[in-house]
Amino acid sequence: MQSQYAPFAQLPPPAGLVGTRSEPVVLPAALSDSKASAEQDAQKIFKLAREVVTDHDKWLSTLREEEANRKERKDLLRVVAQTSGPVEATLNFEMPNGAQATEKLNVEATTAFELYTKAYELLVNKDTLWKITVSGPTAGSASPISVQVKEAMYGQSLASLGLKAGCSYAVKIVQ
Prior knowledge:
175 residues, Ubiquitin-like (UB roll)
């Protein structure tokens, strides 16, 4: 007599399944189909079951470890955010048509290219050549700067251009 689950016992494991086993799980089709004794068949099945439980325990352990690491990283980020001061500067854009816009940008993470892109988005006449000059601070206690943003500076952060967090700057766009 063949087990009703025998065809499923020959299936390979699903792709991407994490565990220690790389070969497909092969269960005996039925105890009567095996030449070994019933006791040996039972031992094989229990051994296989123990391996599955062990694999599952390893997977759970890895899952718990990843969760603990994730929580630790979140806690560290929270501590850094609480201990550090402001990271943004206020930029007051003055457009050629007289329009104005204000943006708060992270001086460490924002590049001169992103500043250029923001100015381009605000421009009405995008076909005419234009240039950007950042000056200030208009508010805050940083040293005064006046920088014309050029293509060679696009990879630099706003901080490397001289902008300080917690200060306000005028960003003048001239066409």
